Amino acid sequence: MREPVIAGNWKMYKTIGQAVQFAEKLKAAAIPGGCRVVICPPFTALPAVSGVLRGTPIGLGAQNMHHREEGAFTGEVSPLMLKDAGCRYVILGHSERRQYFGETDRDVNLKVAAALDHQITPIVCVGELLEEREAGRTGEVVARQVLGCLNGLNAGQAERLIIAYEPVWAIGTGRTASAGDAQQVNRLIRDLLAENFGREVAQQVPILYGGSVKPGNAGELTAQPDIDGALVGGASLDPDSFIAIIRSAVSCKQ
After folding, report:
1. 154-189: pLDDT as tens digits
2. C-alpha dist (Å) from residue 132 to 17, 111, 137, 223
3. Cβ proximity of 175 and 133 under 8 Å
4. Looking at the DSSP assignment, which residues form a beta bridge with residue 137?
5. How far lies 83's CA from each of 46, 151, 168, in Å?
6. How many helices (DSSP H) and strands (DSSP E) are in the chain?
7. Which domain holds residue 56?
8. Per residue in 102-158, pLDDT tens?
């Protein structure tokens, strides 16, 4: 059985002090075993949070990175810098990066390869717009994104990924895909992985759901056979809410 993954994407929230306070509370909580827990603070808080989490099983992730190790790329952060800050994970291809900063599947593909080269686990985000869903194009869009973002990878690289299905229309809106609809898309993603990298790899890769995940719906979502956890946005900013989601996911997968 795949170990569930609960990752918190804090986006552009929390000062260093607030991030440390959250990490201290999470560290002190009685988090059940059998689940990978990851928090992704803003860049400024990564070193401080890394210090709090040192020696714990809680993983630290970043929200983005450049694909180059160094260079004249003002405002960017490299995989070497993330490793130095203590990161073991990085979110790549989030819809907000695509929407507001023009990232393409090709950009994400370069970043995925770079993250893997530096032993950083990519959390690769895919998902359709509302108009694409209403036009019946969800499968087409998600398949294009998955294949584009993972282009050129071999099976050994692919098995180190985490993929997150995040329908864009459900992010920060309070709307959530039904458990059945989310399962259907996650199953599509797993079938794509099987076709391109082999069924053994496909059965190993955690595929998450993201989009207005809360303690009240986390259990129903993660109970689905191909939903292996959640990439949590707003609800990950409150430690009690985030811990409740973790506990719900673990209980559903036992």
Report:
1. 999 999 999 999 999 887 777 778 999 999 999 999
2. 40, 25, 5, 26
3. no
4. none
5. 10, 24, 29
6. 12, 8
7. 5-253
8. 999 999 999 999 999 999 999 999 999 989 999 999 999 999 999 999 999 999 999
Q: Report the CATH number that the domain containing residue 23 is assigned in CATH.
A: 3.20.20.70
Strand partners, 89: 61, 121
* Residue found by looking up tokens 């036009």 in the block: 135
For the record, the structure tokens of 133 come out as 């869903």
Catalytic residues: 94, 166
Which residue, 13, 33, 2, 47, is CA-closest to 163?
2
Token digits of residue 113: 């390869």
The number of folded domains in the chain is: 1
Q: Which has the closest alpha carbon to 20: 5, 2, 39, 1? A: 39
Lookup: tokens for 134: 């209403």
Residue 19, CA distances (Å) to 26, 50, 62, 246, 247 in order: 11, 10, 13, 18, 21
Residue 31 pLDDT more than 90?
no
pTM (2 decimals)?
0.97
